[in-house]
Amino acid sequence: MNYFADSLIAALALISSLDADIYQIVFTSVAISLTASALAAFLAVPAGVAMALNQFTGKRLLQHILNTLMAMPTVVIGLLLYGMFSRLGPLGDWGLLYTPAAMIIAQAILIFPIMMNLTITAVNAADPRLVPTLRSLGARMVPMTIQVIRTTRLAILAAIIIGFGRAIGEVGAAMMLGGNIEGYTRTMTTAIALETSKGEFELGLALGIILLLIAFILNFVLSMLNRPAS
Fold first, then answer.
1. Low-confidence residues of the chain, pLDDT below 50?
2. What is the pTM assigned to this prediction?
């Protein structure tokens, strides 16, 4: 018990002292996850709206594929991309392996089905009169998509926040594709795994506290978004 209490005090001291190494890791994590979330949202939100608004052959199969991808282990994504980005892989000449770009691509792929599925749910839960009204006014697909996104923006923003939370807590693909390089690709999750294995429990605990704080903030924002308007 004393060991854990002493480690917790040391971890809080590291956080309050604004330790440069810790905040470099935090900055790297947030920057990579924010970029991945923006990339995934740019693709997933319009795709989710389009899928919700249209009926086409194979829609049910596509929905099953999205549901499956939501549960895909991150190490599988890391393994597949490692094979693509390695020196002997088809994209080896791009030099992406062990770079933040590779981690961003992995996280974007990881959270894309999450954002798309939640966007589909948001559109399906919207006012059922919205789409028929837009169609009766002669709205084409692009203007209709923009209007639906505007109408469901809070639910879509919640989907993006959930995706960001999933991305920043990812460790498997980040370790495989980023290489955990200090000052370059070391994120909070990979640093926690490394420092704990080295016996640096205080540093790992400090990063874990910051990660929990970020999760708390995200959940607080989500609760505010889901609060009914008075």
1. 230
2. 0.91
